[in-house]
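FAQ: What does a ligand-bound record look like?

Like this one, built around fe (ii) ion:
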Amino acid sequence: MALFKWDSTLSVKVKDFDTEHQKLVELVNRLHDDMKLGKAKESIAGVLDELISYTQTHFRHEEKVMQANSYPGLLQHKAEHENLICQVAEFKQKFDTGSLTLSISIINFLSDWVKNHIMAVDKQYSDFLNSKGVK
Ligand SMILES: [Fe+2]
Ligand SMILES: [Fe+2]
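The answer part, i.e. the structure of the complex:
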């Protein structure tokens, strides 16, 4: 069962970014399901890697579009992205060295940061980007 679902309340009103956010949600859900199923550490590490690299790709994409449209909140938004990447990379490192087991609280943390970042930070660019024709 999926841990959380993307629905229209998470929409940032930019089609490509909604699609990318759905993929992020899917990866967090996969991590949750794999953990529940007791999948091997290597397979979980693979999903975690995919989540990290997809997050980076998505963040770069948002930053590129914000920059191209001279979004005034770019620097602050970028700092939030860097902060999140650091946190998740730290998890991965701890997971790899065995000092952290993927628990439900970690998965909750990951789903919360995806959700909270979309709701509190990404949604701030919606009206601005829409007004520039980015939809
Ligand atoms: Fe985003
Ligand atoms: Fe973002």
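Follow-up question: can I read anything off the structure? Yes, for example: The chain has a mean pLDDT of 92.
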